[in-house]
From TrEMBL:
Domain of life from the UniProt record: Bacteria
Protein name per its UniProtKB record: Monovalent cation:proton antiporter family protein
Organism: Gracilibacillus caseinilyticus
Major site of localization recorded for this protein: membrane
Subcellular location: Membrane
Amino acid sequence: MHGESVSSLVIVIIAAFLTPILLHRFRLKMIPVVVAEIIVGLIIGHSGFNLVENSDWLETLSTLGFIFLMFLSGLEIDFTIFSKKWRKQNGSKNMPNPVKLATIIFIGILILSFGLSYLFVLFGFIDNIYLMTLIISTISLGVVVPTLKEAQAMQTTVGQTILLIAVIADLATMILLAIFVSFYGDESGNMWLLLLLFGVGVLLYFVGKYFRNQSFIEAMSKGTIQIGTRAVFTLIIFLVALSESVGAENILGAFLAGALVSLLAPNQELVQKLDSFGYGFLIPIFFVMVGVDLDLKALFGEPKILVLIPLLFFALLLSKVIPVFLLKKWYDTKTVIASSMLLTSTLSLVIAAGTIGERLGIITTEMNGALVLVAVLSCIITPAFFKKYYVNEEEANYQQSVSFIGINQATIPVLRELDPKDFEPHLFHTKQENLDDSKSRSIFEINELDNYDFDTLEMAGVFQHDIVVVTTGNLEKNEEIATYAKRLGVERVIARVENPTMEKRLKEIGVDVFSILLSSKTLLKALIESPHVVNIFTEQDSQLYEINMNNAGYEGTVLREFPFTGDVIMVRIFRGNDSIVPHGDTELRLNDRLIVTGSSEYVDELQQLLEYV
């Protein structure tokens, strides 16, 4: 490696490291990190101080970053949303099936994009109408998902519809881009080979599905072996190589690998490892290098390109606003416009399409630069617009749906205590089991099942709820049902087990467990050793409450500056897998779970302030 290559690599790595720190320091929350990385690349690259020289190392790492970005884009797709039962939050809206609605809207986006692309061809901005159609119709799932989460819109009807439109657009445009390359690439006419690629993908899915539950795989997933991570990287490289062999782009193979891993429902720990590796190392290098290679001086030197930039941004906006206006039937104008603005955001697929178009000689380097610049602008402007104008009217009235499998003396008291404003219970019990409390039949509506087989439970819609609680009398069956629920993508699963080995297995796949025997033993021990601690849990005046930090307005606020004058004391903050003891300099973060104690009226006030935005 030459000295110039080493210095350029160091500069890019340092730039990628400092970018999120600077965003945090100057509180630039409206700018996505990946967009900031492109801007930093502009500063150190050809458009700025020209500190970075081209090198094989940077080109290789940048390409790997792009491949891994496409893999994570595929992994980000939650295929379970296509099968989830549509729960009407508001019966008067009479919402249609969200998958059908999202598909109709995307078809409208595609048709309108084709018409707008024809105008660009007509006025001589580009020669290929199909490439421009793909560019205009793309939607960035990587921008839509975090924006919806920050706005606490993921569990709302409009949020789910926006998410579905983005997922369908991401899948469809990637497949259409592969078909486009098969027609216009060096090995055009081999489109049938794409079927071979997808056929191999289907085969690998069934192979992965068979092996993922094997006991030896679980044993090899820890320590220095990490067989799951090895399998993922093997899958990526194999499908990337196969994709290039059949004349498609390597990004299609990477995207397909991500989609396959998502379908196999990996455990959250593996996903976090892949995210950490991708967004912590390779992907920042790619985005910094996008900015480095972008030459704004040459871009602004061509009047035609200067005219193209605002026109293209307007086309991106128009192609989303008109089809999404179909939602006006169920939502107010402000919500519909905010939704269409968010769907205008686009980034990685535009970069992919522009790079491919330049390589195939369909567009110029300056045109590719204009596409990247418009994509960056869309990611800065549209999410900020959505956050400002979207009003979450559903979240405050949102009830979490909870399915209880098995009704007994452990669950009946809980059912009676659950706040009906926040939770909607659905009870499932077999006809063969005796219900301990006959009065419960008159209080609660109980769905009787013939058995607890997976098919029976799916037919009854047990897994189509936010939370699944498994508490049958058969502990082995509890483990089986809980594992199956996580495999189907249920976010929160709670299971009763009394066996430490079972408890360990379920915790590893993200299942929350409880034990009646262990709970009784722990409570008795606490009563003997620390009776006042037990009082916190049992006495109404001193009990603990959990509050979710959903208000983006308090993101980054330190507790000593938090403008709340009630008597509430923060006992603990749970952030992801971390448990934080709060102090004056602790900063609040979105999605923090705050454990607090205090008088109920002030707790309610704090909950209104932080949870309902």
